């Protein structure tokens, strides 16, 4: 029965839209695969195996970008923590009357402010959502 349906679909010159969970059937009959999600719909050239390969590549690419972004954010946060620690240590040991120490303290405060601005900028850039899988 299924074999007859596959033969008829493949012989047909008409466009046939169908929904199926049978991968073998899709692979034998489909020339395009449409993916419909809550946000978008997309058209893929080829059978289910080709669609699946493209989706796997997209997922891996997205996951790599997300992981890279998270590493950059973590490195910035660690850098900020380190600079803030230096600043608080220097502030605690700095004499009010020593201009060199006051200047050094001022530089550390500026450095901490710059690092915080970098992190804020990084967080405001396009964020990659965590991969679903």
UniProtKB/TrEMBL annotation:
Q: Which InterPro entries match?
A: ABC_tran_Xtn, ABCF_ATPase, P-loop_NTPase
According to the UniProt entry, the coiled-coil residues are 59-86
The molecular function GO annotations come to: ATP binding
Keywords annotated in UniProt = ATP-binding, Coiled coil, Nucleotide-binding
Comp. bias (Basic and acidic residues):
122-133
Q: Where is this region: Disordered?
A: 91-133
Residue ranges of the ABC-transporter extension domain? 35-114
Leader peptide range in chain numbering: none
Q: Which domain of life is it from?
A: Bacteria
Basic residues bias spans: 102-114
- What is the name attached to this protein's record? ABC transporter ATP-binding protein
Q: Which organism is it from?
A: Staphylococcus gallinarum
């Amino acid at each position: 029965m299924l074999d007859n349906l596959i033969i008829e679909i493949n012989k047909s010159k008409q466009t046939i839209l169908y929904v199926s969970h049978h991968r073998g059937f899709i692979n034998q009959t489909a020339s395009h695969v449409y993916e419909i999600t809550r946000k978008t719909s997309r058209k893929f050239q080829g059978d289910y195996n080709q669609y699946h390969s493209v989706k796997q590549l997209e997922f891996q690419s997205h996951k790599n970008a997300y992981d890279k972004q998270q590493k950059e954010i973590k490195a910035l946060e660690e850098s900020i923590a380190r600079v803030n620690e230096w600043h608080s240590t220097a502030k605690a040991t700095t004499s009010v009357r020593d201009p060199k120490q006051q200047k050094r303290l001022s530089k550390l405060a500026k450095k901490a402010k710059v690092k915080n601005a970098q992190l804020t900028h990084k967080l405001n850039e396009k964020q990659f959502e965590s991969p679903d899988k």
